[in-house]
Amino acid sequence: MTDTLQARIEALEIHVAHQDATVEDLNGVILAQREELDRLTRRINRMMSQIDELEAAAPAPEVTKPPHY
What is the DSSP secondary-structure string of 1-51? Predict the structure, then answer.
């Protein structure tokens, strides 16, 4: 092989290695975000259940007319 072709192959290999590292880093970020999203979704669901329970247990508002009626 010529030196130019060898240099081009090496440059491509370096480029692919950097891309592989970037893809792995991005994959780690996506996994962390998915875990955080799952955690937040569970927390919101718990809070919504608590709100539903509180609303069910809350007394109904009294319907009274103001004194000027």
Answer: --HHHHHHHHHHHHHHHHHHHHHHHHHHHHHHHHHHHHHHHHHHHHHHHHH
- Rounded Cα–Cα distance for residues 43 and 69 (Å): 46
State the Cα–Cα distance between residues 25 and 23, nearest whole angstrom.
5
Q: What is the pTM of this model?
A: 0.65
- Tens of pLDDT, residue by residue over 6-33, are 999 999 999 999 999 999 999 999 999 9
Between CA 38 and CA 46 the distance in angstroms is 12
Q: How far apart are CA 14 and CA 66, in angstroms?
A: 80
Beta-carbon contacts of 1 under 8 Å, excluding residues fewer than 6 positions away, are 9
